[in-house]
Specification:
It is a single chain. By secondary structure, the chain is of the alpha/beta class. It has a single domain, classed as Rossmann fold (3-Layer(aba) Sandwich), CATH 3.40.50. Helix content is about 30%, strand content about 25%. It is built from seven helices and seven strands, in the order H-H-E-H-E-H-E-H-E-H-E-H-E-E. It has a seven-stranded mixed β-sheet with strand order 3-2-1-4-5-7-6, with helices on both faces. The longest helix has 14 residues. The two termini are about 30 Å apart.
Length: about 220
């Protein structure tokens, strides 16, 4: 599998979030808010019985908002370093229903009855092989009513794939057709794809898909 996880481990060692302009710092603290709950509620509900997996949880920004509304959150990321930062950040936010999971071991560590998989920004920074592996593998982890909400990018400056040997933040292009093919291959039902234009950059594609009942077809 073509993978740039090692590149992301090195980027985290270089304090990726602390040095990134998108994670605005106030009083020396990283961004602790966002529109993630609003995004999710545009597609499905967040309830106290739901088990949630976040692909690329980072230092815990999304989890801090989602965790109080659900039963439990499993956060996946590349190294003990960044997962340790997430645990500390979430402890300071009063979150105690979080389990950190290494990206190398998520298939073994994640339970088999996940109700919601959420991924924001991350797929545009991974090789296509890794993204395919996440969607295919997460489809098998979903509960009978499980759903996936995730964002892909198709930006003006995106490349066809990430180069694993480069220590950089890549921008990987996914077209609507490619997304549809991946969802079909994972045997998921595509509820909808919403395209959001980002002025001066290109498009984000928001994808909402769900578990198929046994014996049914994605078409």
């Amino acid at each position: 599998m073509k993978s740039n996880l090692e590149s992301w481990k090195k980027l985290q060692e270089q304090n990726y979030f602390e040095n990134h302009h998108c994670y605005e710092k106030k009083d020396g603290k990283l961004l602790s808010y966002g529109k993630d709950v609003k995004i999710i509620k545009g597609y499905t509900s967040l309830t106290l019985d739901k088990k949630v997996a976040i692909i690329g949880c980072g230092y815990g920004r999304e989890t801090a908002m989602i965790a109080p509304l659900v039963s439990h959150v499993w956060g996946i990321d590349v190294s003990p370093l960044i997962l340790g930062k997430a645990q500390n950040f979430l402890k300071n936010q009063g979150v105690n229903n979080f389990t950190p999971v290494l990206a190398d071991t998520w298939k073994e560590k994640l339970p088999e009855d996940i109700d919601l998989v959420y991924c924001y920004i991350v797929f545009q920074h991974l090789t296509k092989d890794l993204t395919r592996d996440y969607i295919m593998g997460m489809a098998e982890k979903l509960s009978s009513k499980g759903e996936i909400i995730c964002q892909f990018a198709e930006l003006d400056y995106s490349t066809e794939d990430a180069e694993p040997e480069k220590i950089e933040e890549p921008s990987v292009r996914w077209s609507v057709d490619e997304i549809q093919q991946l969802v079909d291959k994972a045997k998921l039902y595509l509820n909808r794809i919403d395209t959001e234009n980002i002025p001066g950059h290109g498009n984000w594609h928001w994808v909402h898909c769900r578990k198929l009942p046994p014996g049914s077809s994605p078409k």
